[in-house]
Amino acid sequence: MQKTFTALTLALIAAAPIGAQDKPAPALAPSEIVAAAPKADWTTIAPSDLLVMDLAPDAEGKPRRVVIQLMPPPFSQGWVGNIRKLAAARFWDGTSVNRVQDNYVVQWGDATEKKALPAGLAKVPESAYTISHADMTKVWVGGSSEAEIRDFFAKREKSKVRENILAIRNAIGGDSYALQSAPFMGWPVAHDNLDFEARAWPVHCYGMVGVGRNLSPDTGTGAELYTVIGHAPRHLDRNIAVVGRVIEGIEHLSSLPRGTEALGFYRTAKERTKIRSVRIGNEVAGLPTYEFLSTESGSFAQYADARANRRDAFFIRPAGGADVCNIPVPVRRVK
Amino acid sequence: MQKTFTALTLALIAAAPIGAQDKPAPALAPSEIVAAAPKADWTTIAPSDLLVMDLAPDAEGKPRRVVIQLMPPPFSQGWVGNIRKLAAARFWDGTSVNRVQDNYVVQWGDATEKKALPAGLAKVPESAYTISHADMTKVWVGGSSEAEIRDFFAKREKSKVRENILAIRNAIGGDSYALQSAPFMGWPVAHDNLDFEARAWPVHCYGMVGVGRNLSPDTGTGAELYTVIGHAPRHLDRNIAVVGRVIEGIEHLSSLPRGTEALGFYRTAKERTKIRSVRIGNEVAGLPTYEFLSTESGSFAQYADARANRRDAFFIRPAGGADVCNIPVPVRRVK
């Protein structure tokens, strides 16, 4: 917690006593590394992979837009397909935010639970909460024959990518919930082992979006969604589908009044925030283009190291590690 | 994210198909373990260890009280002493909440940075961000002679307490930021090693309260405070003093509108939430008595295991671990 406003802090740095100059110059802050990352290290997000939720305007009439990036293959695609159908059917228009539980989640959908669902929604099995390393490899390599995989890894072995990935994993260190966890192909992913038979799954970090469900064996359709607004509730990993993340406007959800009923549900209908519309990004006129910092890039490796070892001016002691949810994948609007 | 309201979920359990009865009965949820904990497993918090902050009422005229428990010895006592002096001097009355940064912190104090501080505030050294295991042992044992320590551990060896502590540590597993971390004497504490020479420090979990400061070697007086409202920013550990935690009313801070300036500072004075008064608990008429679940108790060990391995009805796959900030110390009002 930098105590003072930025201008004053800069003034303090300028006025530092002579002795302070003996120390090495402070390293770049993670935000400065991101700002300096070359264009080639950014990946464009297709508008068709965005879900744009417009809430009713706030008390002062200001618009409240929440932009969600949907998870790419091979993760959670059964539910993501349902979400595309629900948006196409305008299912969420006129529904509401029904639950805000402090340090946990904000949840939205049809509070009446009576609205008809569009036809053709998939019933996704629980096994799809995780995916095999074999399936991950197929998507990553862009092929699945032994020759293709061998060729991919042989090339990678000599590439900078491998070095970047190892540096990122090294920044993370221990994890109470998985053998290993790291950003992978743009998303926080955990692994129960490291071999070809291992399973991987997306992680419930701040801002991640998941699918509400009833008791097992129900897995939810995707009609009821939530986002994390507190410390990563990773006990939900592998118990519930993760389908995306909020990349802009989470403050419109995280700053809503907390519900006072059990689990943070609102007591009365009037406490609920109305949802005007939810659309896939390519249906939204004038939507900016978004990019995320490629998690296999040199800039990301440098950023991860800086998140794990803060050496910028404010810090006196680098932590030596950062958990996967403390290395959020940077997203920006393209200017 | 339980999809439905509690009543409906219970109805679903009652209506479960016959096949579902083959499964073992669901285990207790962490909240049920806490509700069932015997009186002996709770520790009363002295009113003199509470800091009560009354914000101006909200838009509907409802009171907004935030109750903070101050850290006990041997942690951060230089700053805690300053905070007591600041409260006695009514320093915060009429100041404001000046910064709300999403997924990070809410910060309050004198926005003008010109208000006079009371006389006699300690200037606490950076070395006090951590404490030695030797000092921790003194407080824990209630003595520091070799005989006293030997006697304490000999008794503990045969006691249930040791078993509870080992069970709690076992529930936590890996940590990216420390060799080990666990709730200890009621607080989340991390350790850089396990021997008598090791250092320990309080952890920046959700709701923990810390001391704003300027650049090193400044360590802050305690006049500028913040609380964590997002994923545990543990890179701040050992870089800044942790002095307490919000035990009630954090929603009055975490749901405030986010500031739009750098670091979440508010752009205009009128966006700031006014602080009416901040008092030590024994100056506040009618304050309830609060207790925390003793972190060396059998109930806490059972609770920690249940946080790490959810086996209650909603869960299909226990995580196998929980990080220290996902095992928050339960606090309750005494009825």
TrEMBL record, chains A, B:
EC number: 5.2.1.8
MF terms (GO), sorted A to Z: peptidyl-prolyl cis-trans isomerase activity
Gene3D superfamilies noted in UniProt: Cyclophilin-like
Signal peptide positions (record): 1-20
Pfam families per UniProt: Pro_isomerase
Domain PPIase cyclophilin-type: 80-277
Alphabetical list of InterPro entries matching this protein: Cyclophilin-like_dom_sf (IPR029000), Cyclophilin-type_PPIase_dom (IPR002130)
Protein name according to UniProt: Peptidylprolyl isomerase
Species this chain originates from: Novosphingobium aquae
